[in-house]
Design goal:
28 helices; Dymeclin; mainly alpha; 669 residues; 57% helix; two-stranded antiparallel ribbon
């Protein structure tokens, strides 16, 4: 290749790649490795670029798969990388660009090869490729070191021990990506892998002591959101040299160097979106989610999940539990800030769900924050834009709200937070509204969207559960929030009447015909009546616990009182209707006494006076509405495909052929 510019299409004919994948074994001490590893190019930052690279090098990979059993060149390459990483920390401290550059290039090649190997062969075959080595004629095979475990351990050490600098950013990113690739065997199996080869290495042996440090480092990578340094700054300053770009210092490394090639055009700039994001933070979060969702081993729980479940705040002075060797401390304030800022992505929302659900220290800290709106508002935006989000993202956001509403302190405090000008809420101008009222509006909107579009009972149930948890602490509801509560009940009432009418007509029609089966209107009616019952319980809970705090809800109730007539005598609702009927009758009577043509202000004044006058013992007490989120049995059946769909769909630095994927269908992500 010399000093001439190189295109991706020329890679299959590159002499160094052909030698690596050829029939001749290459000793790990051969000067060839200096030549192979002295290439320079702009590291791919998206899956489209990597697709081009993989398509160009597939012939090289296939040749290596075929020849490696005889040459052991994959093992030699890995040993070269392992030998160079031993001095990596010192190289970073001494700003030894050349050493880090070549180590990064070695790892990049290993990662590209691994991805193809893992997608094309079983774990048993892959393990064999790591044990092949050149045999001297007449020598006997000796038990070689376990290269897979050594490589995995080296990658983890690299992530947790090498300081993150401009010159080490790329190799840190590559180490995280290679670990994801190592675990990607799950993508090529329909069933959930309970105990793969890589599982065993990561949960036992030499990798295990690094568990807490790895989780902590990945979390800090997510928290810091370090952007990728500008192209060229992490290795050498670029200089123009005729038709191609060569790094000046590289010319002294070896003869016949690779020239610079860029995916997407020489010297092309990254997109604005990619400039604004942090590939390392993104990949670190994905790796963290993959590790946390590995299935437990038969004899031990997943240590990475245990670390996530138990870490504490750096401000917490209590001693770490000796019973949990994977516990550690992290700055909760920084973590909270990052979680608030990153909720636009599925993976950040999933991390927030995991921490609130599994780590009681994080949950207690979040619920004690006085700026809870910074976390809740992004979650509400996810639900508000439900039509633009995938269903999994919506579920996670909704479950987060459900977990938060399990706490009475949260339910009280959200009505004390006053928000100004919510620009993303388009249905109505909200110049001033409490966080609690906004939360109610968004959840009700989600229910209505679900009723007309997806009709998902699970989503309905969780929305109503969140409203029910909050209902006893409803305070000073915004008039629009109060209207939407009654409007939702109106919509449910109309739906109930429609299904009832359809069932009646269907029954009449069936009397004259014995051939056609009846639609299951009874089941539809049962579902809608369950939802109506829940709405009545929510309204009742607010009236019995905080009537005097919610004149706008009483106003909306009186304005639409005719809606409730049909449910008075209905056997499913008679008990719960008693209080609602009493409130309607009591306030209607007071309004009649006040005369006709009353202004809105006068009506609200009468309601406020009546709320004080209404004896509390006249309202029947019902059990408190409290719903707690409970994770379904075998949650891995949901979470593992979900996490891998996030990895697969991530735009940063990974590409897999969709035809090879077995874990999920391409439209499930």
């Amino acid at each position: 290749m010399g000093a001439n510019s190189s295109s991706i299409s020329e890679l299959p004919e590159n002499e160094y790649l052909k030698k690596l994948s050829g029939a001749e074994p290459i000793s790990e001490n051969d000067p060839f490795w200096n030549q192979l590893l002295s290439f320079s190019f702009t590291t791919p930052t998206n899956s489209a670029d990597l697709k081009l690279l993989e398509e160009a090098t597939i012939s090289v990979c296939k040749s290596l798969v075929e020849k490696n059993p005889r040459t052991g060149n994959l093992g030699s390459l890995i040993k070269v990388f392992l030998s160079r990483t031993k001095e990596l920390k010192i190289s970073a401290e001494c700003q030894n660009h050349l050493f880090i550059w070549q180590a990064h290039n070695a790892l990049f090649i290993i990662c590209c090869l691994l991805k193809v190997f893992i997608s094309q062969m079983s774990e048993e075959e892959l393990q064999l490729h790591f044990t092949y080595e050149e045999k001297t004629p007449g020598s006997y095979g000796t038990e070689c070191e376990d290269l897979i475990e050594e490589l995995l351990c080296c990658l983890i050490q690299l992530i947790v021990e090498i300081p993150l600098l401009d010159i080490t950013y790329s190799i840190s990113l590559e180490a995280v990506t290679t670990l994801i690739v190592f675990l990607s065997c799950q993508l090529f199996h329909k069933e959930i892998l309970r105990e793969s080869m890589v599982h065993k290495y990561l949960m036992r042996g030499r990798c295990l002591p690094y568990t807490s440090r790895l989780v902590k480092t990945l979390l800090y990578n997510f928290i810091r959101q370090e952007r990728s340094p500008p192209p060229g700054t992490h290795v050498f300053q670029q200089q123009t040299d005729g038709g191609g770009l060569l790094y000046g210092i590289a010319s002294g490394v070896a003869t016949g160097l690779w020239t610079v090639f860029t995916l997407g055009g020489v010297g092309s700039k990254a997109t604005t979106q990619l400039e604004q994001c942090s590939p390392l933070a993104n990949q670190s979060l994905l790796l963290l989610l993959v590790l946390a969702n590995l299935t437990d081993a038969p004899d031990t729980p997943n240590p990475y999940r245990q670390a996530i479940m138990s870490f504490k705040n750096t401000q917490d002075s209590t001693a770490l539990s000796s019973s949990n060797p994977h516990a550690f401390q992290i700055n909760f304030n920084s973590l909270y800030t990052a979680l608030c800022e990153q909720q636009k992505s599925d993976q950040a929302t999933l991390l927030l769900y995991m921490l609130l659900h599994q780590n009681s220290n994080v949950r207690t800290y979040v619920l004690a924050r006085t700026d809870i709106e910074n976390l809740v508002l992004p979650i509400l935006e996810i639900l508000y834009h439900v039509e633009d989000r995938n269903s999994h993202h919506v579920y996670m956001a909704l479950i987060i709200l459900l977990i938060l509403t399990e706490d009475d302190g949260f339910n009280r405090s959200i009505h004390e937070v006053i928000l100004k000008n919510i620009t993303w809420y388009a249905e109505r101008v909200l110049t001033e509204i409490s966080l609690g009222s906004l939360l109610i509006l968004v959840v009700i909107r989600t229910i209505q969207y679900n009723m007309t579009r997806t009709r998902d009972k699970y989503l309905h149930t969780n929305c109503l559960a969140a409203l029910a948890n909050m209902s006893a602490q409803f305070r000073s509801l915004h008039q629009y929030a109060a209207q939407r509560i009654i409007s939702l009940f109106s919509l449910l009432s109309k739906k109930h009447n429609k299904v009832l009418e359809q069932a009646t007509q269907s029954l009449r029609g069936s009397l004259g015909s014995n051939d056609s089966p009846l639609p299951d209107y009874a089941q539809d009616l049962n579902v809608i009546e369950e939802v109506i019952r829940m709405m009545l319980e929510i309204i009742n809970s607010c009236l019995t616990n905080s009537l005097h705090h919610n004149p706008n809800l009483v106003y909306a109730l009186l304005y639409k009182r005719d809606l409730f007539e049909q449910f008075r005598t209905h056997p499913s609702f008679q008990d719960i209707m008693q209080n609602i009927d009493l409130v309607i009758s009591f306030f209607s009577s007071r309004l009649e006494q006040a005369g006709a043509e009353l202004s809105v202000e006068r009506v609200l004044e009468i309601i406020k006076q009546g709320a004080v006058a209404l004896p509390k013992d006249r309202l029947r007490k019902f059990p408190e509405l409290k719903f707690k989120y409970v994770e379904e049995e075998q949650p891995e059946e949901f979470f593992i495909p979900y996490v891998w769909s996030l990895v697969y769909n991530s735009a940063v630095a990974l590409y897999w052929n969709p035809h090879d994927i077995q874990l999920f269908t391409m439209d499930s992500g």
